[in-house]
Every structure is written in C-alpha cells, then in structure tokens.
Amino acid sequence: MRLRILLICLAAWLAALPAAAETVLYAASNRAHFTAGATTGIWCNLYRVDPATGKFVLLAPVRVNDQATITIVTLAIHPSTEAVYAASGPRSPTAPNSLLMLDPRSGKADVVGPIGHVVSDLAFTEDGRLYAWLPEESRLAKLDAASGAATLFPPSGITGEPGGGGFVIDDKDVGYVAASGAVGTLDRVDIKTGKVTPGPHLAGAPFPAAISNLTFSPDDRMYAVNSNMGAPAATALVTIDPASGKVKEIGKLPNDSHALIFVPHDPLTTWLWVGAGVVAAVAGWAIFAWRRKGP
Description:
- This protein is α+β, with helices and mostly antiparallel strands.
- The protein folds into 2 domains: 1-22 and 271-295; 23-264, Neuraminidase, CATH 2.120.10.30.
- It contains 2 helices and 22 strands.
- The strands form 5 sheets. Strands 5-4-9-8-7-6 form a 6-stranded mixed sheet, with no helix packed on it.
- Strand 10 and strand 11 form a beta hairpin.
- Helix 1 (2-20) packs antiparallel against helix 2.
- The two termini are 19 Å apart.
- 38% of the residues are buried.
C-alpha cells in the first residue's frame, strides 16, 4: 500500500512536469542615458516576455565577466545544443560588433570573437549553420560560430532602411528579411546565394519605421520586434503572417528593445520541479507511513 501511495505521488508530479519545461521568450533592450546631448551611459537588460500578451519581467543586466556592460542587438539559439548566441551592437562599450554566447538565466555573456560588421539579426539553420543580416551593407553573411568570423555573400539586390533588418530562417531553411521598414516588404533570402526575392507588403504594424528582429516560436509563428527608431525607441511585440505580410500587435516591449528569441526549455525551472517532485513524493510516503503507524 505504501508503494502504491508513493507511485501515485510520482505519477501526479510527472503529469505536471511538462508545464515546467515550458518555452521561454526572451528579449533584450539597450538603453542609453543622455546629458546635454552627450551619451553618458549605456546598458543592456534581459527580460522574460509573455508571448500571448507582451507583458515583460526584468531578469538581469547583461554583463561580460559579471562586470563589463555589453549591448546586444540579436539573439539566436543553436538547434541541437540549445546554446544561445548574440551579436553586440556598434555602440557597445565592450567588444562592439562581436559574436557572443549568453546565459539567458543570468545575463552572463562571453565574447566569442569579432564579426567586424554591423549585424541586425542572427539565425541558425536546422543543421547548425549560423547566418547574419548586415543592414548597412544590405547583404547576408555566414558566421563561424567558434570565432565570429564573417563570410560575406554578394549584395542582396535590395536597399534596406537604417536600423531595420529583422532576419530569420524557418525549419525548411527558408530565410526571411524585413529590411525595408514595417510598411515595406517581408522578403525571402536564399541562404545559398544571398539573393533576396521580394515578398508581401507588411501591413498593420503599430510603428512604421522598422522591424528590427524576427524569430519563430516552437509552433512556427513568426514574432518580431517593431520599433519607431526613436531615442528612446518605442517598441512592440508583434506577429507576422509570412504569406500575407499581415502584422498583429501583441503588446508593448521595453523601450529600445532589439533582441528576441524563444528558448525551448527553462533548465532552472525544470530542476526546481524535479526537486519539488521528489520532495512531494517522499513527503507523501512519510505522511502515509506515519498515519499507519499512529502517534
């Protein structure tokens, strides 16, 4: 009977466990402080975002060696290792225009190496190849994930807007780029040649200036950061229908948000659930045994 009770407790815990291994949407914002027209400080914060409402919670500042401030403009996750990569911006106080690895639970960043080009967005293919969109050059680049070194493709054939360049690759290795503003087009990128094919016109974005980041959710919905490119920049979490270009606002993001990525599990939460499950099972068994024995 005691074993039966223990098994019932474990079964109840296992039934609840999938909720713990949830997918988490992370966003990062880079904020600059100005005094008398001069930049006197810049910092980067990491947020957890509800993909259904856009509501966000501050998690941690992004730091290198737990001290140095570094700003990130994009996030990407390796499809097999689930390691999270990032690219720093051109105004980053530490290692500008570089490839990074980031722990989204703590905000700790490690510099992989210099990219040497301004990057607006990163994306992995299904087999783990890393690509970047270079907004100032309106072209695709392939990055070495071990060093950050960039191999440039020929010019894409389109002219992008300053600050734009949301880029993502779907699970069929089809690339998408929104480089012509939030009232421009969502174009397809051939990741073998870097050539861009015009796509549907975007419509419905709250801010017309830019789509600065793109990412896919685990259920294949395209999410994006929509920005007015102000100072500070108002930003919103939106979804985009790749077939029609229809944009739907989900909610407001922190000002100056850039990076956006879904991480398919939250290891810290999962291990907390594991511990809680074990404790609950043992406690259930102990209570039952105590009751059987009597005071």
